Amino acid sequence: MRIWTVHPRFLDAKGLVALWREGLLAKAVLEGKTKGYRKHPQLIRFRAHNRPLEVMCEYLRCVLAESQNRGYNFDATKLPSQASAVERIEESQGQLDYEWQHLLNKLGARDPGRFRRLSGIKYPEPHPLFTIVPGGIRSWENVSQQLIQTDA
Q1: Which end of the chain is less enclosed by CB atoms within 10 A, N or C?
Q2: Is the distance from CB of 15 to CB of 114 less than 8 angstroms?
Q3: Which pTM was predicted?
Q4: Which pLDDT score, from 0 to 100, does residue 83 have?
Q5: β partners of residue 90
Q6: Which residues contact 27 (CB under 8 A, 6 or more apart)?
């Protein structure tokens, strides 16, 4: 499960569909409707929110909007009809940077055109639910050493 910090507009078709599916799974976990994935580290920041289910639904609204911009037919009935005003989640710059490198790595393998268009971006826009604050990669992240860039 990957609940991206980067804005969904950067994802390729496969990534956006996977994010929708995995976001719906995360929503089901937060609703107590599944036994699997309950301790998944990607859910830590949502569980820490004072309204975890509502914040996940708002996260998914942005994913849904991106799918509609692309002409996809994601099922909007999977979300409550009314949007909720929720407090944004603070996420670290290091986490955003790490995920950006992770995404570029994936795109290099499966969508070279998108990779070329995005590879020059140094400061990717986060998903609108997140406020980016100083800090490193989150302790819950399953870090791939080959994705960590050094200044050396």
Answers
A1: C
A2: no
A3: 0.91
A4: 86
A5: 131
A6: 53, 56, 57, 60, 78
Model confidence pLDDT, tens digit, residues 26-68:
999 999 998 877 778 889 999 999 999 999 999 999 999 999 9
User: Where in the chain are the domains?
Assistant: 8-147
DSSP code string of the chain: ----SB-GGGS-HHHHHHHHHHHHHHHHHHTT--STTTT-GGGHHHHTSSSHHHHHHHHHHHHHHHHHHTT----GGGS-SS----PPEEEEHHHHHHHHHHHHHHHHHH-HHHHHHHTT-SSPPBPTTEEEES--S-TTS---GGG-----
Q: For 5, how many CA atoms within 13 A lie in the half-sphere containing its CB? A: 25
CA angle 101/38/68 to nearest 5° reads 55
* pLDDT tens digits, one per residue of 89-114: 999 999 999 999 999 999 999 999 99
The tokens of 15 are what?
């990534």
